[in-house]
Amino acid sequence: MNPVMYGKVEKGKLVLDYPEKFIVRLASLEQKRVEVVIRKETNTRTSNQNRYYFGIVLAVFSEHTGYEVEQMHDALKEKFASKRLDNGLMITERTSKMSTVRFTEYIDQIKRWVSIEMGCYIPDADEIEI
After folding, report:
1. Residue 118 pLDDT > 90, yes or no?
2. Which of 29, 41, 74, 82 has an alpha carbon 20 to 30 Å from 10's alpha carbon atom?
3. Of 40, 53, 56, nearest to 6 (Cα)?
4. How many other β-carbons are positioned within 10 Å of the β-carbon of residue 50?
5. pTM over 0.85
6. How many CA atoms are closer than 13 Å to the CA of 46, on its beta-carbon side?
7. Is residue 42's pLDDT more than 80?
């Protein structure tokens, strides 16, 4: 397993949230080559977004189509979160890795399509209790 360490940059220096975990991990890699990746932290979808997506969006659409929630999840990911590479391969985003903004866009695309193409109304999150 490759643990992810979080922190922030202050005055050009890295300040880790849990430096003791970092030290333990470094010690376990003594004399080994390592890879260091530094990138801006992104906020992945929230638990409220997740509950709304699975509990309302997918549940309503699944009931409308007669398919299982997981089947609809896979089909909608393929339609709205996939792209074909130049070599012909298809890659699909994992919704669990989407940022809050990207996940909102994803849900909005689904709701628009479901409404226009499938004649199925999915209530907004503020219209229902999640």
Report:
1. yes
2. 29
3. 40
4. 15
5. no
6. 7
7. no
**Which residues have a Cβ under 8 Å from the Cβ of 60 and sit 6 or more positions away?**
120, 121, 122, 123
User: What does the block give as tokens for 118?
Assistant: 């499938």
Q: Which two tokens stand for residue 89?
A: 């391969």
Amino acid at 3: P
Residue 103, judged by CB atoms within 10 A of its CB (0-12, 13-18, 19+), counts as buried
Residue 115 near residue 121 (C-beta atoms within 8 A) = yes
Helix axes 100-118, 69-80, angle to 10 degrees: 100
Alpha-carbon gap, residue 52 to 35, rounded angstroms: 37
Angle at 18 between CA 14 and CA 20, to 5 degrees: 100
